[in-house]
Amino acid sequence: MASPYHSSFPLSPPSSCHGGGVLHLATRAAASSLACCCRAPAAGRDDDHDAGILQALASNGNGSVHGGQLAPQQVIDPGGEEEEAGDGGWRRGSRLRARDCAKRIMGLPVEERVKVLDLLQRDDGALTVSDYNDILSALARAGDHDSAVALFLALRPNGVAPDAQSYGTAVQCLCRKGAPDEAKEALDEMVARGFRPTVATFSAVVGCLCKRGRVTRAMEVFDTMRAVGCEPTIRTYNSLIGGLCYVGRLEEALDLLNKLKESPKQTPDIYTFTIVLDGFCKVGRTEEATAIFQDAVRNGLSPTIFTYNALLNGHCKEGNSLKAYSLLMEMCGNGGACPPDKISFSIVLQALLRAGETSAAWQTYKRMERAGFEADSRALDTLARGLCRQCAADVATLADAQEVFGKLVASGHEPVSYTYCLMAQALARGGEVDAAVSLLGEMARRGYALRKRAYTDVVRALCDRGRARDALRVLALVIARDFVPGRNAFDALLGELARQGRWPDAMAVYAAAVKRGVPVSLKRHSKEAFLMQEQTETRESSARLNVPQ
User: Fold this and answer.
1) How many CA atoms lie less than 13 Å away from 282 in the CB half-sphere?
2) Better-predicted residue by pLDDT, 4 or 187
3) Which range of residues forms the domain containing residue 287?
4) Rounded to whole angstroms, how far apart are CA atoms 127 and 159?
5) What is the pLDDT of residues 168-222, one digit of tens each?
6) What family does the Swiss-Prot or TrEMBL record give for this protein (predicted)?
């Protein structure tokens, strides 16, 4: 993951054609032209800063600004001897030739490459520090940070003294490699040799250290920065505050934020507030995070989607899913200033489903759908189950359950067996008996296990409608899959068969139940059927004789 507080040093590759081989360039005019192409633009671009933080925050959807990055494997193996320890413990120098780097630049598989000096017509001894700086910048632009560092370490063995630009490029590349300790040592050496690092170089080291939790060392760099008269920018402060939050020093982070609010030189931006707010949310202090959110609004700052998502995530982690739902509805209705994104909806929807708040989850899903976002299959599956359960108390939700279930199937994600069973139960209770029978058949074809309550509810619904033959088919389907139907299913079918006077069929069902060890009573059903028949005959006789009931 890219560093959330990267400097504006140009490490993204520039535009060029794809090619390889060796360039032939004999004049210094070409070298000067390359220098103009390769050098870094002025530091301090706010859009780079904002984009870096946004990328880091968006990486996990909850406002986190930290992440790790392993150093890539070294591309160029210098294969030389180490320098004396007097030049710094971070050095692993070698006699690396600039020509090797030129070949490497032209062979890198990147979209854009920089054409560098034709070094084949020169010896390394003829190259100046400016020429080496152009090559270092080209390597950095191409993203080959290992080779850039290797070439920098080879400058002194090649008889070239690095200058401030050389050190600055090397420090930036070490930060990009995820080597914070080496980057700090290189920075310390740079200062010790009398060079003054730029604010971008200082900020890169502070950010790299803070990402790895080395806040104490980052503080040392911060103090050095101020000691040499380099005023930290808000990007530097944001890196430091992020590091404090990362290691759990929230009170110090909040104190630094408050000092920035009173500082005449630097003003906290919305990212500063978001970093602190997210830190408090992560440790379950959402009420304090809400106060920080409100403070940012009072200071005239507009919360970003990352600010809202951090707060939504904090509410949900604490189990306050309805508070998160209210905040989400506020985002949907505040005039489109900061509408929720897919991450916002997903955070709240999953929290509501975990909490069993099916009605609010259904409303969130519909809002999400209207906004053009698709819920993931797991959320749809859980929502379908919740709506099916609600059908027991409110049959009106059956249509909603069918909609979500159909959406889940249409999306190509197979519902789990439990969802199929709940859907069959809901259909049976809602009067959609044929659909319930069809769904049970589909489950049998797919090899799913049939839950006892599901097929029992279907059998009851069929028997209530006098469809004993269809109920028999369902029971036969269950038995054919080596399941033992429950007592309630047998009782429902026996009762309907007895009511219809179909005693041979009733005896066959009774025998099947006894054979499988299910305790049922045919005598009770016989007595109930006899009483029902007697009552029916009495009513018919009274009707014929016009006797009042």
Assistant:
1) 20
2) 187
3) 241-301
4) 10
5) 999 999 999 899 999 999 999 999 999 999 999 999 999 999 999 999 999 999 9
6) Belongs to the PPR family. P subfamily.
The Cα 148–Cα 477 span in angstroms is: 71
Residue environment code for 479-501, b if the CB has 16+ CB neighbours within 10 A, otherwise e: eeeeeebbebbbbbbbbbbbbee
Q: What's the pLDDT band for 51 if we cut at 50, 70, 90?
A: very low
Q: How far apart are CA 279 and CA 285, in angstroms?
A: 9
Q: How many domains does the chain have?
A: 2
CA triple 152-156-159, angle to 5 deg:
125
Q: How far apart are CA 426 and CA 441, in angstroms?
A: 16
- Tokens of residue 461, six digits: 């619904």
Q: Which of 339, 271, 350, 276 is nearest to 317 (CA)?
A: 350
pLDDT tens-place string over residues 274-287: 999 999 999 999 99
Question: How confident is the model at residue 34, as a pLDDT?
Answer: 31
Number of neighbours of residue 186 by Cβ within 10 angstroms: 27
Token pair of 445 as six digits: 């074809």
CB 48 within 8 A of CB 180: no
Residue 270 lies in a domain: yes
Residue 283 CB coordination number (10 Å): 14
Rounded to 10 degrees, what is the CA torsion of 116, 118, 123, 125?
-30
Residue 310 within a domain = no
What's the one-letter identity of residue 449? A
Task: Give the 3-state secondary structure of 47-76.
Answer: HHHHHHHHHHHHCCCCCCCCCCCCCCCCCC
Q: Is residue 176 located within the same domain as residue 282?
A: no
Q: Give percent above pLDDT 70 in the chain.
A: 72
d(CA 217, CA 234): 19
C-alpha 293/C-alpha 307 separation (Å) is 8
Q: How far apart are CA 226 and CA 59, in angstroms?
A: 32
Q: State yes or no: pLDDT of 59 exceeds 50.
A: no
Within-domain flag for 59: no
Name the residue with higher pLDDT: 276 or 60: 276
CATH classification of the domain holding 215: 1.25.40.10
Q: Tell me the DSSP string of 472-483.
A: HHHHHHHHHTT-
Could you tell me if 217 and 185 lie in one domain?
Answer: yes
